[in-house]
Amino acid sequence: MSNRFASTKRAIAECDICGFQYKLKELRNIIRKGNDTNIKACYECFDGDHPQNELGMFPVHDPQAIRDPRPDFAGYAASRAYIYSGSLDSKLEFVMTASLGSVTVSTS
User: How many CB atoms sit inside 10 A of residue 27's CB?
Assistant: First the structure.
């Protein structure tokens, strides 16, 4: 069975953008928004389809809000731990207070 088209081994064509002659197999089709424009361009003139042209073509589910959020209030002192240092005499003392009670740690 014969092929309907000639071989592109030695075929010469012009770049549709700059007009210079190239081998037909070196020219590439320009694609915009996923559609072939049937414009052939050389490697210097070829500009690939930019990814930002494909916005809206694919579904994106990117939720931004949190369902039923709970704000953080500074008034809940019992839920926070306070660490403070005692006097700087011969012995350094650290006292930590939490919601479960208080713990005194002495270092020597």
Answer: 21
Q: Whole domain around residue 96: which residue ranges?
A: 78-106
What pTM does this model have?
0.46
Give DSSP secondary structure letters for the chain: ---SS--SSS-EEE-TTT--EEEGGG-EEEEETTEEEEEEE-TTT--PPPGGGGTTSS------SPSS-----TT-GGGS-EEEEEEESSSEEEEEEETTEEEEEE--
Is residue 73 assigned to a domain? Answer: no
| Domain-located, residue 26 | yes
How far apart CA 57 and CA 34 sit, in angstroms, is: 10
By mean pLDDT, which of 24-28, 34-38, 91-95 is the weakest? 91-95
